[in-house]
């Protein structure tokens, strides 16, 4: 389960960064929202999977409420999931 969570965390973090880049591109002259629409749904699914897996893996990892809060907060911060992987998920 930990490896699955690490993979989802990586993909969620990458999809978030790509979505932010697409949103910036959309604002440029001549930019359109095609990439935002293309990346929005996969990112949303990965976000939900990240949150659900965090709840499932919490007892296994014996996270305190503070650590669990950091893990959840990381899902909405750029590069947050990469920090969680390095700090809390690597064995």
From TrEMBL:
<feature type="transmembrane region" description="Helical">
    <location>
        <begin position="67"/>
        <end position="84"/>
    </location>
</feature>
<keyword id="KW-0812">Transmembrane</keyword>
<dbReference type="Pfam" id="PF12823">
    <property type="entry name" value="DUF3817"/>
</dbReference>
<keyword id="KW-0472">Membrane</keyword>
<feature type="domain" description="DUF3817">
    <location>
        <begin position="2"/>
        <end position="88"/>
    </location>
</feature>
<feature type="transmembrane region" description="Helical">
    <location>
        <begin position="34"/>
        <end position="55"/>
    </location>
</feature>
<feature type="transmembrane region" description="Helical">
    <location>
        <begin position="7"/>
        <end position="28"/>
    </location>
</feature>
<keyword id="KW-1003">Cell membrane</keyword>
<keyword id="KW-1133">Transmembrane helix</keyword>
<dbReference type="InterPro" id="IPR023845">
    <property type="entry name" value="DUF3817_TM"/>
</dbReference>
<protein>
    <submittedName>
        <fullName>DUF3817 domain-containing protein</fullName>
    </submittedName>
</protein>
């Amino acid at each position: 389960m930990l490896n699955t969570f690490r993979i989802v965390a990586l993909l969620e973090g990458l999809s978030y960064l790509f979505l932010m880049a697409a949103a910036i591109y959309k604002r440029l002259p001549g930019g359109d929202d095609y990439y935002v629409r293309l990346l929005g749904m996969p990112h949303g699914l990965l976000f939900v999977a990240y949150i659900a897996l965090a709840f499932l893996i919490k007892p296994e990892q014996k996270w305190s409420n503070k650590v669990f809060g950091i893990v959840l907060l990381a899902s909405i911060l750029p590069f947050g999931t990469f920090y969680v992987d390095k700090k809390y998920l690597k064995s």
